[in-house]
Amino acid sequence: MKFRIGSTDITVSYLLICVAAICVIMGAFDSFVWCCAAVTVHESGHLAAMCALKNPPKSICVSLFEIKIRDRKRQEQSLRNSMIIIFSGPAANFICFILFYLLYLWCNELFLPAAIANLSVGLFNILPVISLDGGQALFILCREKFGEGFAERAVGVASFAILFPLTALGFLLLFKSRGNFSLLLVCVYIVFSLVMRNNEGEA
Fold this sequence. Notes:
- This protein has helices at residues 14-26, 29-52, 79-106, 112-125, 133-146, 148-177, 182-202; strands spanning 2-5, 8-12, 57-62, 67-71.
- It is an alpha+beta fold and 203 residues long.
- It has 7 helices and 4 strands, in the order ββααββααααα.
């Protein structure tokens, strides 16, 4: 599904819509909504920083596991501006976590899932893994000091070093919870995207 807002092209994956429908049928729609809300907060942080720096996105692609924002002048950004854009996403999640957790303590338990979702999305995205904010930051820092080739290798090694225990944790969570495969599915997706990127680089 594609549409356009101003000068930005927006694409929403049909797979995401299908998963939402499945969650409704299985009675897990509340968790799905909180997760999507946390991801929306995260990407809104990136978008706010980009607009504040007068660099609106070229396109936004919303898929099952991620929202890809294409920067019009990504290579022209200074190191400072790049870091501001990268970490504004997790920062937005951490701010929302604090707010929702305080509301949970003062008002109602209904705010706890929102707090947990924002904390999880924020922490997950600062991991030094390719496609995540932490991986992008590591790549930019290594490229500035050691060149692009070293940066790609460093991020690749860090990604696999982080993903291996995370995938093991995903299997453990699946067996312990008897059906919670969310972490495992995300890890498999990231590993697949990493392998595909490496193959494209070798082609």
